[in-house]
Design goal:
Blueprint lengths: L1 H5 L1 E7 L3 H12 L4 E5 L25 H13 L4 E4 L2 E7 L2 E6 L3 E9 L3 E3 L15 E2 L2 H4 L7 E5 L3 H10 L5 E5 L9 H9 L3 E4 L2 E8 L3 E8 L5 E5 L3 E3 L3 E3 L29 E3 L11 H21 L1
Parallel strand pairs: 1-2, 1-6, 2-3, 6-17, 8-15, 9-10, 9-15, 10-11
Antiparallel strand pairs: 4-5, 5-6, 7-16, 12-13, 13-14
Helix pairs in contact: 2-3, 2-7, 5-6
């Protein structure tokens, strides 16, 4: 009985990005016994963003690493507990939710899922083999390894453009490869990319293979309009072709859309009573730090009301 009480919480939060840390702040500040489980860095993808310019309160921008540190510090101030572990399974046990990790099991009365997203893989030959040897999904993490190099960036959205602009600090030249002939990123990113002399564009093209020896040496590219296939020399390939939600471990338990995003109402309630979802892992129009923070606050408040009514 003592062991069960020691591992039982009012609220467990899975994921330590901006949604999870905000949920933890609100829940612990409401004097709920709160545990946050994170299997990586607190801050999630936010930690790898060099400069965040669109989060209110920082007129000159703020680094993702600094904003992550501040959010974590604030959440822990009110007594939120944290562990570094990965959740592998969630089960239902009467009015409790059982959260199983590699290291143990925990029980909670309310569960908030804030697992976010991860970068989508291209799924082409060579991608897996050269991961960490020229293939990267994080410019902030790996950009400095490509000083004076010639590289490619695959994608046309905000992530691709933002990371490409960061990479120009290190590389000699980079080519953005996009499957369409117009970019999807916001106008300010497009303007900066088009005006940067280090950036070139290869339109209407997709990567079919990544080749090399001990490291990446070239890529095979196909023009989707003409069908022409060419090989281009490159020292590295940074891939930013979309996101997929980290919800695989709860398939079959909660309702999701065809892409794996969790379906919730405006109060962040999922299809199972007492389980909430916040941030990028739930289906929504916009996925930004500001919206994740709003979700985290809403989910924690909804969880508190659920516990009061239960």
């Amino acid at each position: 009985m003592e062991e069960k009480q020691a591992r039982t919480y009012d609220v467990i939060i899975i994921g330590g990005g901006p949604a999870g840390m905000t949920a933890g702040l609100y829940a612990s500040r409401s004097r709920l016994k709160t545990l946050l489980i994170e299997n990586g860095l607190f801050g999630g993808q936010m930690t790898t963003t060099e400069l965040i310019e669109n989060y209110p309160g920082f007129p000159q921008g703020v680094s993702g690493e600094e904003l992550s540190r501040l959010m974590e510090e604030q959440a822990k101030r009110f007594g939120m507990e944290t562990i570094s572990d990965e959740v592998v399974e969630i089960g239902l046990e009467k009015d409790l939710k059982r959260v199983k990790t590699y290291e143990g099991e925990f029980l909670c009365r309310a569960l908030i899922i804030c697992t976010g997203t991860e970068y989508r893989k291209l799924g082409v030959p060579g991608e897996k083999e050269f991961a960490g040897r020229g293939v990267s999904y994080c410019a902030t993490c790996d950009g400095a390894f490509f000083k004076d190099s010639q590289i490619v960036v695959v994608g046309g959205g905000d992530s691709a453009l933002g990371e490409a602009l960061f990479l120009t600090k290190f590389v000699r030249q980079l080519t953005i490869i996009h499957r369409r002939d117009v970019l999807r990123g916001t106008k300010i990113y497009q303007e900066r990319a088009f005006s940067n002399p280090k950036i070139k564009f290869l339109w209407n093209s997709i990567v079919q293979e990544i080749k090399g020896d001990s490291v990446v040496r070239s890529i095979i590219v196909k023009n989707v309009k003409t069908g022409k296939i060419e090989e281009f020399a490159t020292d590295g390939a940074f891939l930013f072709v979309g996101l997929v939600p980290r919800t695989q471990f709860i398939r079959g338990l909660l309702q999701m859309d065809e892409g794996g995003y969790l379906l919730t109402n405006e109060d962040c309630e999922t299809s199972v009573k007492g389980i909430f979802a916040a941030g990028d892992c739930r289906r929504r129009l916009l996925r930004q730090i500001a919206t994740a923070v709003g979700d985290g606050a809403t989910a924690a408040f909804a969880a508190e009301k659920y516990l009061e009514e239960g």
